[in-house]
Prior knowledge:
The structure holds three protein chains of three kinds. Chain A has helices at 21-29, 68-72, 98-102, 123-127, 133-137, 152-159; strands spanning 7-12, 39-48, 51-60, 78-79, 87-88, 109-110, 116-117, 143-147, 164-166, 177-180. By secondary structure, chain A is an alpha+beta fold. Helix content of chain B is 70%, strand content 2%. Chain B contains ten helices and two strands. In chain B, helix 3 (97-119) packs antiparallel against helix 5 and helix 6 runs antiparallel to helix 7 (202-229). Chain B is globular and about 75 Å long. Helix content of chain C is 30%, strand content 17%. Chain C has a seven-stranded mixed beta sheet, covered by helices on one side. A six-stranded mixed beta barrel of chain C has the order 21-25-22-24-23-28. In chain C, strand 8, helix 5 and strand 9 (167-169) form a beta-alpha-beta unit. Chain C is globular and about 70 Å long. The model of chain C is unreliable at 1-24 (pLDDT under 50). The chains are: A alpha+beta, B mainly alpha, C alpha/beta. Chains in contact: A-B, A-C, B-C.
Amino acid sequence: MARKKKYAMFIDTLKCVGCSACVYACKSENQVPEGFCRDWVVQKTEGTFPHLSQLIRSERCQHCENAPCVTNCPTGASYYPGDGTVQVDRNLCTGCKACIAACPYDARYIHPVGFADKCTFCQHRLKEGLQPACVTACPTETLKLVDLMENSSTIEDLVNGRQIVKDKVHAGTKPKLFWLV
Amino acid sequence: MTEIISNKLNPYVYPNLDIWHYEIPLYLFLGGLAGGLLILSSGMILFKKESIENKAVRWATLLSPVILSIGMLFLLLDLEFKIHFWRFYTAFIFTSPMSWGAWMLLIFYPFSVMQALIVFKDYINFYPFILKTIKITEPHLQKIAVVNVHIGTGIGVYTGVLLSTFYARPLWNSSVLGFLFLLSGISTAAAVMLIICNSGDKRTFLKVDMYLISLEGFAATLFIIGGVTSAGAFHDAMVYLISGTYAAWFWVLFILCGLIIPLLLETLEVLNKVRYSPLVPLLVIIGSLSLRFIIVNAGQSFSTFY
Amino acid sequence: MGVINRRDFLTISSAFLAGSTVLGGGFVLSPYRQGEVTSLKSDKVVKTTCELCFWRCGIDAHVKDGKVFKIAGQKDHPLSNGKLCPRGLGGHGLLYDPDRLKHPLIRKNVNGKSSFHKATWDEATTLIASRLSEITEEHGPESVAMFSHGFGASFFKTLLSAYGIDTFTAPSYGQCRGPRTEAFKLTFGHGVGSPEGLDIANSKYLVLIGSHLGENMHNTQVQEFSQAIAKGCRIVAVDPRFSTAAGKAETWLPIKAGTDIALLRSWIHILIEEKLYDEDFIAENAIGLSELKKSVRDATPEKTFAITGIPVEMIVKVARDLGRYQNQALVHPGRHVTWYGDDTQRERAIAILNALLGNYRAKGGLLSQKTYPIPKYDFPKPKKSSRKFKSVYPFAGSIPSNEIVDRTLADSPESFKAWFIYGTNLIHTLGDQKSTIEALRKLKFVVAVDVLPMEITGYADVVLPECTYLERFDDLDARAYKKPYLAIRQPAVKPLFDSKPGFEIARMLSKKMGLPDLFPDKIETYLESRLKKIGHSLVELQEKGVFVNQDSGLYRSQNEKMRFDTPSGKIELVSNKLREKGFDPVPKYTQHPENPPGFFRLLFGRAPMHTFGRTANNRILGELMPENELWVNAVAGQDMKLKNGEYLYLVNQDNIKSKTPIRVRLTQRIRPDVVFMVHGFGHTDPRLKTARNRGASDADLISHLDVDPIMGGTGMNNNFVTFTREA
């Protein structure tokens, strides 16, 4: 029997230079239509000249454990396949956009065909034993997809005592993108 | 100072939420009105069985399912994948208000249509099946009316809850919104019935509408206070509504034209200080319609959740 | 943003382990679940070499139904290591660019109006051959110059040199890396190379002088940069702009533009005065320390503060940190270094600083790189030219392109009469646009080989459409690198339209130019023959994409006796070669012009998703960055009454206005006396439908060039702009 998985992504903000290779890799891999994206990069600069600090974050669907898109989806098109991800079944989707309104991370868009679409953690690649396209392309090795059910030592090595930031935790969504700052 | 640069490509959410246009506010308005008409007509039937002879009540029973159907048409227009409409009925998701709404319709239509059929039974002399059904159900009109009051309330509340369960959208995420939209729906229904009713009933409906407008004003006040007194994005969203881009629309169109002026004029009309004018209920309708547009649009343009 | 500490995180992760996925709630009647995306499965994967920039990463081109739909980094290629930068990932945007040059074009004058006419390859090549023969007969083959960028030019060079034409120039020298090459050659006996021989990954202390790694997305270098960050490398960014790299830095020194040499001299001064340099290494391997010491004596931190605006304690702190890390510290030589006209001297200062740190062939320092051994193809011996081009700049190791422009404009029998331009948009590249255009007008004949209708093609008499890198073989790539490698560029798909690979074009031309036996019948024959000499076959390389030799002797061993390819055989802290030609043997600081009131110094650079003009028309890459912006300090911009996001025209000190408007970005991230834009936008050729009128071009405004008297590089950063709302 296949072991249960729980995928999450660790994103090292110190390594990230914000080049957006992740975005382009995703767009080709998943044939994301022109004018939309499943992942994106946010650059945040704080302070006044010359005392500045910068944080760069590659962002995408958080694959929340308590995903408002899933609870708000009227047809069950957004669902948990059981590997820790959140997926959209485009055969069930009516394009009502409730999931888009529900997502605190604004991670979804409507594909021109009519269904809601977003990052899948490249589920199709994971099934083939490959890493997601963004993770593979990233020149700075900023992105790491981790199975939280697997040995925690990998995770500890990855975190290495650093602070972890999660986005909008007060939304209660239990997001699964972890930014190392 | 903070400079944020995002390269997100997604016109639906960036720079702000932009998913619902005219269809959804119209749907919410028509849904609320249909619910209100059902509540008022069924309520009056419950209150006095003879009400079924009343012109306004008769029209209300008929208009309710018709208006909801028009609303549904707008909902369908909003769907991006229209041929998947039937997918609402291959699932029941109890955490999704939209799913509740979809299934509620399955109860709404038989009961509201049944009520309308009974009310208009004299005009129906075809289809023996329908006649037979009317015959069987007619003695239970009061029971049907009880159910309809509840369904009407459900529909009315639903139009607000649809928005208010989105925690991610700070303006919408207010538990008062369902209550506000319900009351607004009923008062609009009263206004519609005020227009339709015989001149002898005007006074009654004026009083009903006055009462409902007051309640709606109370709910609106609660909505504003609730927002202003909360924190973070929720506070900012309400401040945006009452003082931002949509402030003029909100205060003039909804509060002034939709609530204060009609309430004032209706009071004067009841006191026989001024003569009744159909313009007054029209103002209520316009106010109620603009409320849906303002809330849906402002909630989208201030969609940042932080 | 919520912050949780690590302990919290671990408890959360154990909650994960308990494994409770919150239910969606409810039931779904569905016979099956289809959550997966319908991603494309490739029919074949072609291993080839990228050409979105000139780093030349190995790529995997994924093809389905005869179309490239995805490009990924090649796993075994040492320049990509399986990863790829945004530009490379969007390479198919170039391949399927609808604005590509589709067929040869010939300029014809009809009724006094000159316009392009579609031509056959036969017509176009015949015309080129006859015109070149006319011109070379009248003025000699020395009157023809070839400009190029990229190794696709190699067969054209072979062709022209067989014909007796041997004036080859590339703007990548005089307008980019030239000063660095000469300065390091003068100091260490060899250049830095491209890809740069820098051990950034193992560096413990990295100083960047205006180098904006991260925005400059040379794949492997950025990979190393992030590895260094991960290993805790301390970074110092010297830049008037808070670049991405400055955002990663422990110390950002927002230096007053144009004063870098003063800062570098001060560091040299402190290292020597406080004896923080690698004394053993210098004693063993370098000459000129005492003279150096004497000549930088005046570069005190106090004086340097007055010049650079960098606080004394910061100057001293960085110098002492450099001294602490010594061998493991690295001062990055940069890449585009033609800034102020004294660039060779600035690069010399950087070279000297690295020498003092003793980081030469040390872990984390400067490296000398090797090439993968492969003999050349046996082409017939080229004709020897009677009067070989001689630069007026004594240390010009290559020909500065700007000198060709000057020599074309000069009224002398030696002036150039024809240009053969391969893959370089000189209008946006050379600066001093007016002279370039004048030269182009004066020429008797201009050939341009390009993929896109760049501005330069509009000045050509014949335009030849080359196919993109994804549709052609090229020469083998075996440049010097830390891991010597040999890589192939091969077609993933057949050439689109009526475009042809460079080899084919050169071969067609060779037949018309009376050199029928110059090239073998097919490029495969050429490649096979070269590969056979080292015991490999073309098929093997096509399958593998790359052969890699393991690095050996990258780092110097203890007590290794090193010999440098300099006159003294040692590292030359003081250069007598420079002295002999009348230049400062040790870099001196000279003051550069300051911005007039109301004007800002114009600086330019890169963005990660673009390679200057080459990608400006790429619809895939343009999605995230369709235009460039002008960075203006928020306070300075408000003083000038600028609004964030508004479009403005720029006017420079010579009253030249930008051809297109640019969007203003008011930001804290830049000094108030400079403005910055990404180079490569503001195209005006109507045939570039996507790039046209997007953003502005700095090239329009770089009318003043400060030419480096040492090697002829063109300093471009002494141009100043102000704003106007008038079109």
